[in-house]
Fold this sequence. Notes:
Elements: H1 2-17, E1 22-33, E2 39-50, E3 56-66, E4 68-85, E5 88-98, E6 100-105, E7 109-128, E8 134-153, E9 159-179
Antiparallel strand pairs: 1-2, 1-9, 2-3, 3-4, 4-5, 5-7, 6-7, 7-8, 8-9
Amino acid sequence: MYKFIFSFALIIAAPALHAQKIEGEIGVLGAVNVKTERYLYGGNLGLKTRLKGGESLGIGASAFLMNSARNRWVPVYGDVRIPVVSNVELTLQPGYTIYESSLAIPGTLKSRTKGSFYAGGGLTAYSPLKGGKRFFFQMKYNYFTFDCKVTTYLPNYQSVTREVKLKDHILSMGLGLAFR
């Protein structure tokens, strides 16, 4: 289901990116996990095109890093921007998170976690610079889901396997440069 949603978002964005004026974005981000209060950092890249009404459609990816580069979440998303007021846009980003992690405690426990649905939403403010470039500041809520399969080994040589849907809520702020 989630891969279908992401594929649909890319199909919608593809004709828009084929248009004449493509804008790129590159930025850095800092974030906090609402549940664990742990800090994250990372960056983002995106391509989009403006429509006649000022809205924009595109695709993008971010990388959220925790503790080390080995523990990263990479959401890939369709990017929809809707003007709210001058130089401020509502940002909507449905997509899929690329992530995989395994844990094994021999004879006791085995787990495997994979990325799943992602949704981001917030506001992006722009400030014009010379040469058609724009500085941007973004505040965003990020919702992640993960599919986790846990196998517990019992003393009588039996095992119990459960599938669990994990959810995380991240608040992020980003700074960057938009260019044509």
